[in-house]
Amino acid sequence: MKIMLNGQEKSLQAPVTIAALLQDMGLGERRVAVEVNREIIPRSRHGEVELKDNDRVEVVFAIGGGAHGSNRRNNT
Amino acid sequence: MAVTAETIRKTTNDPLVIAGRMYSSRLLVGTGKYRDLEETRRAVEASGAQIITIAVRRTNIGQNPNEPSLTDVLSPEKYTYLPNTAGCFNAEDAVRTCRLARELLDGHDLVKLEVLGSEKTLYPDVPQTLKAAETLIHDGFKVMVYTNDDPITARQFAEMGCVAVMPLAAPIGSGLGIRNPYNIRFIVEEATVPVLVDAGVGTASDAAIAMELGCDGVLMNTAIAGAQKPVLMAQAMKKAVEAGREAFLAGRMPRKQYGSPSSPLGGTFF
User: Under an 8 A CB cutoff, do A74 and B71 touch?
Assistant: First the structure.
């Protein structure tokens, strides 16, 4: 199966949970937020929610950011 | 700390109160555009800011998990994070960003709403901003809203329940200073919520002028990060905001057209 992860296609061998995906991305210990098909999945459910084929997953975190946006659009 | 009318009356140090929380610093800073995280940390510390804006972005795929992140150098326990919808050009993206930020920061509901309408001027799209503010307030967010320096728009945002109104002084990142002090003054006079100048400050005197006009605070990023010595400029901005506030509270002397001696004219021996 494959998913769209942060705008890029990613192949997965078997259905995995969000927690396992984050572990695989090296983000297991990181403060992140996860959205699957535009729905936020709370951290408390990362261990139980399994990803399905063609899921669109966004994993975001806090970065230095301005008081304002630049003129680069953040298209998703 | 939670604020009641009683605690404000008892406080002599003139705190900034936003959404029921007190802050001793009236300077809010962004954390973007610095050379590295260490410079970010040093500039934020020098500014004395207690509220810092952050952006929410995709984690880089395959990033090095050992690299420090913003939350490592500027602890969300020590600073009030103000997630910012920077880069959003419509209400939907802005609302989505705020919801992700709330999840990211364990339910933290204070956000800075910004919906831009032009890539060139970076002016706010007011109808989209109003739409996003309505959704966010309904959703339980405490919204500090970036808007243009129009007193009527500012009043509308306050009436709908935004916790702070943040008019621009000049276009974002322009460093042109307070282009329309009369409008900022109108907004301050009518204000029922804190008014913070957000965008356009270029140097310390601009920040002081904003505060002398009676603004409750100033939010800036590029004026500090874009200075040749950002940490020194952060320190200058801290002093400018404090000086401007004190000058406002002191009440300036009236302007006069002609000279007026400050030593008595009687008793001269010449």
Answer: no
